[in-house]
């Protein structure tokens, strides 16, 4: 057995449409066509060769393994920007409830082609990120947006934190996601929206930096009352900071 067969670390991403299951068959057909169209268009705009990707489709979702020479920073920056633009184009003139709106997850890892699609941790982790509650809620609570994205820890720290894109870390909001065997932080961004203004999104957010230690208040001298002899102490208040399947090539 060749243990290296199919092994390679690649940029991985997956998309899924909001509300596909509640849509009537004709709209589902349109959504599938529109997803293919916007992915093709975004790939062409950034110079990716989508026909060379390894892709698994399942109705309204698509999981893709990019080519070895295709840029991870371009994927999470330029490609996403063109994907958002393409979605706005295909939704032009459609009522709010009839628009195509996507969630997208980005990761970097191993996804080996298998009989049922893909195997290995990279494929599984990308699926967990795409399906996480905070990403679903971020899109649901941003009615003007058509695309919400989530990136893995590795993508955020290496690509975003390393300043290899035009994106700023402040555009993302960190969440802890626990789903089956997956337990890690993800970073979510809503294009055309402010993810920080959305309130709780059904997940554990990371604790903020600990509050500074304030010096102990000076001891208060008890002051007896004239009538009862009871002793009252003046309370001292300091600042309190709260934080917290089908395989295709």
TrEMBL record:
Superkingdom of origin organism: Bacteria
Chain positions covered by the region annotation Disordered: 201-222
Protein name: Guanylate cyclase domain-containing protein
């Amino acid at each position: 057995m060749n243990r290296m067969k199919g092994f390679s670390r690649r940029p991985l991403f997956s998309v899924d449409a909001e509300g596909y299951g509640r849509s009537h068959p004709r709209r589902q057909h349109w959504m599938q066509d529109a997803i293919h169209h916007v992915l093709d268009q975004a790939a062409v705009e950034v110079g990716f060769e989508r026909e060379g990707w390894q892709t698994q489709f399942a109705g309204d979702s698509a999981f893709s393994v990019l080519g070895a020479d295709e840029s991870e920073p371009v994927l999470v920056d330029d490609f996403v920007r063109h994907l958002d633009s393409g979605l706005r184009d295909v939704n032009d003139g459609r009522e709010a409830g009839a628009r195509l709106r996507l969630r997208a997850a980005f990761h970097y890892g191993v996804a080996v082609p298998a009989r049922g699609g893909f195997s290995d941790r990279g494929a599984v982790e990308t699926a967990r990120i795409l399906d996480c509650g905070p990403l679903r809620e971020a899109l649901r609570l941003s009615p003007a947006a058509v695309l919400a994205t989530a990136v893995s820890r590795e993508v955020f720290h290496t690509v975003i934190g390393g300043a290899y894109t035009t994106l700023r870390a402040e555009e993302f909001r960190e969440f802890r996601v626990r789903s089956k065997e997956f337990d890690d932080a993800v970073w979510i961004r809503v294009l055309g929206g402010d993810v920080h203004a959305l309130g709780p999104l059904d997940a554990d957010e990371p604790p903020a930096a600990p509050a500074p230690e304030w010096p102990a208040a000076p001891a208060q001298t008890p002051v007896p009352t004239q009538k009862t002899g009871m002793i009252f102490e003046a309370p001292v208040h300091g600042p309190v900071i709260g934080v917290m399947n089908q395989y295709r090539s």
